[in-house]
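Task: sequence in, structure out. Protein: DUF1848 domain-containing protein.
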Amino acid sequence: MILSVSRRTDIPAFYSGWFFNRIKEGFVLVKNPFNAKQISRINLNPKVIDCIVFWTKNPRKMLKKLDEIKEYNYYFQFTLNSYDKTLEKNVPAKRYLIDTFIKLSTKIGNDKIIWRYDPIILTDKFTREYHYKWFEYLAKRLSPYTKKCVISFLDLYKKTERNLSKINILPIKENDMLELAERFSKIAFKYDLTLETCSENIDLSQFNIAHGKCIDDKLISRIVGQKLSIDKDPNQREVCGCVKSVDIGAYNTCNHNCLYCYANFNRNVVEKNLLKHDKKSPLLFGKLDRDEKIVDRKMKSYRKGQISFL
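Result:
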């Protein structure tokens, strides 16, 4: 089983204490995001979990406790963008995050930390030239500490449109994508970085940019050291290349307050949910009302045998 921690919220940044408590307890309870009365009980035994994929903008609180997950295989998706408080209201300063990125990579290796520069947003302030300048600056600083960068372009869902209503978002046309991709590709090549897209229809192969997989079976196989047989995740969009995983997060619980976020629908709800968090609870937030249906999630290892990299 692949454990996603998490597409729905930043657990390393805000709930690392809870996560490590769940590891010690050996299980976690996860509410169905569409029916709060349906709850999955997920076994966290390292013999069942093939790999943990962390998604974060700030894993600093985890750095001193990584020994507590030494029995697990894992890698990090670390989003480090060029935006200021205009779009990322509660995200720490760039200098702090670059330092955190370097420290994490030094601890776990540059093959287990993926830099995400996404989503790419165009405004009167965040222009193409702005992105070229910042992408090169970040690529120069981070390239010794990672092998890959993942990019995507903003998708304006209804909930993100509402959050961005006061920002003059400029449409990203195909020509914009092609120009951005070409410049980013040249910068990535300069710093020996592999560049991939996340959930994008556009074909950028002419710029040596492939369609990526955030939950990546090939990367997981290399980390685990064994062949894995995992199907594509049917719960993700058709254009998404990710393989199957189980997510233990919850929507409307991330306190970064990024205006482009698809996982936070309402800031008032987020603030209420933050107050409902108890790091000793098996749930990320809230309490059991005792009328829920708790079902043990069926899980299996995808490992098939030793893999050779020669």
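The first helix runs from residue 11 to 14.
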